Amino acid sequence: MIGDVLTQPPSLDALRERMRESLKGIVPDFEIDYKAELAHQINLLKKEMNAVILGHNYMEPALYQSVPDYVGDSLQLSAISAETEADVIVFCGVWFMGETAKVLNPKKTVLVPSNRAGCSLAEGISAKDVRGLKAQFPGAPVVTYVNTYAEVKAESDYCCTSGNANKVLKHLLDQGHKRIIFLPDQYLAHNTARELGVGFITAGIDDHDSIPADQPTVIGWDVRCEVHELFTVEDVNNVRRQYPDAVILAHPECSPEVIDSVDISGSTKAMVDYVEQTDAPMYALFTECSMGDNLAAQFPHREMVRSCSLRCRHMNQITLEDTLDGLRKLQYQVELPEDIIALAKKPIDRMLEIR
Questions:
Q1: What stretches in the chain show pLDDT beneath 50?
Q2: Could you give the domains of the chain?
Q3: What pLDDT is recorded for position 3?
Q4: Measured between alpha carbons, how far is 346 from 339 in angstroms, rounded to an integer?
Q5: 351 near 160, Cβ under 8 Å?
Q6: Residue of 92, 78, 204 lying closest to 145 (CA atoms)
């Protein structure tokens, strides 16, 4: 079990100064003064309630730098939620993340600060869709991205994140599977298939009958992240013109054309690790824009290109105000049917085993 950090929170003055130092040039001081008061109340309340706060890398900087006990990507936070000793889990992320934490902790109270924090990927695939694909491709294992709702995970054999998608698919290929259904992000599925050197088709669009039976093939779905699909090769070229020394990193939810034009492709954790461990004149991230601000605060000795304007409207729903209200009122609790929890747990457990 992990030992959750539930020590005495810093004083309001200490928290305010810490936020001012880490967020200098990122968030104005007047905004920090206001948000530090909210963060201080949250930190006092979470200790009183034996709550743990998990913060995704896409949270806005003032929240990210003040209240989470743990920060990271979906895979990291899923692993933490599986081991926490806290009574209440507050997932500062979108709703499917809270559902994953609930599947792993059915007896605990799991909160998501906003009930409007959805996801274009999760909303682009249903359990009925998965059942239809299984009927169309009998025997093909189903891998679902963690960016799906629990009822879809319940129809799956494995889950994965962008951080371990290639490991999960390679595991299945090594078992001899020739067809693997990978849902729902078309670009992530395509990019992962290319990385592994196997074929790729999109169900309902490409002709699957033309694929040789002995050719390993990933079967994707015609849905994309509404943020990452907006990045273009022209955007990459513009960054290269303006910042020729920058290393450009892109999330694998970007199009294959964008991935081909950047220097590094990887999950948000891979991006964090690269910026932390690799010296470069500057770094440009092609992912949700708050992450660039968060890395600028986390690694002040690194120069980040902060020219991005693409924010996730769903992640943007998570605020310090709503986090405080959620704890005070225990509102927006994640509830799932017992049968869905039982069925969804197996593919999630498999995801956590292949890290």
A1: 1-6
A2: 12-119+315-329 (3.40.50.10800), 122-225 (3.40.50.10800), 228-305 (3.40.50.10800)
A3: 41
A4: 12
A5: yes
A6: 78
pLDDT of residue 2: 40
How many beta carbons lie within 10 A of that of residue 339, not counting itself? Answer: 9
Is the pTM higher than 0.90? The answer reads yes
Q: What is the pLDDT of residue 325?
A: 97
Nearest to 64 by CA among 32, 95, 106: 32
User: Cβ(305)–Cβ(282) under 8 Å?
Assistant: yes
Separation of first and last alpha carbons in the chain: 18
Beta bridge partners of 122: none
> Within 10 A of 241 (CB to CB), how many other CB atoms are there?
8
Q: What is the pLDDT of residues 65-112, one digit of tens each?
A: 999 999 998 878 988 988 999 999 999 999 999 999 999 999 999 999
211/208 Cα distance (integer angstroms): 6
- DSSP-derived secondary structure for 111-124: E-S-TT---TTGGG
* In contact, 217 and 178? CB cutoff 8 Å: yes
Rounded CA-CA distance 293/220 in Å is: 32
Per-residue pLDDT, 306: 84
pLDDT at 7: 65
Integer CA distances (angstroms), 108 to 86, 105, 116, in order? 8, 5, 22
Looking at residue 154, the DSSP 8-state letter turns out to be T
From 249, 244, 247, select the one nearest 266 (Cα to Cα): 249
Residue 24 in contact with residue 296, Cβ under 8 Å? Answer: no
